[in-house]
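User: I'm putting together notes for a lab meeting next week and I want to include a structural view of one of the chains we've been expressing. I don't have a solved structure, so I'd like a prediction I can at least talk through. The sequence is below, exactly as it appears in our construct file.
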Amino acid sequence: MGQAERATSIGLVIGAIASLQLGAAVATTLFDEVGPTGAVLLRTGFAAVILVAIWRPAVPHRASGPLRDAVLLGLALAGMNLSFYAALDRIPLGIAVTLEFTGPLAVAVAGSRRATDVVWVVLAAAGIPSL
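Assistant: Thanks for the context. Below is the predicted structure for the 131-residue chain, given as structure tokens.
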């Protein structure tokens, strides 16, 4: 992987994390007005509108598979967000986010082939009990 590709990858990951955390932080302020379910509905709805406005893929009328897959992905993401927001409604944001990232962290560790990755995982895991 070239240096430009690596920088782009890192930037995309940081952007995704920032978007997720900023969205969760803003959503928690909506819980008093619309609750976790309403916050998920608003966030998913706005995301769908923005995606359609920015990127409108051509879906053949006869091919229902891609459209069905997109709807199923949207439903899965909405279900995941609802679970996360229900947790945010009950426990502090830092603890919820930490628990959310332990699964992907475990997958990354299982797929890692470098010893230095284990050092970073141990450092990340050491911070969990302090929350």
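A couple of points you could mention at the meeting. Residues 3 and 9 are 10 Å apart (CA to CA). The chain has two domains: 3-90, 92-131.

User: Perfect, that's what I needed.
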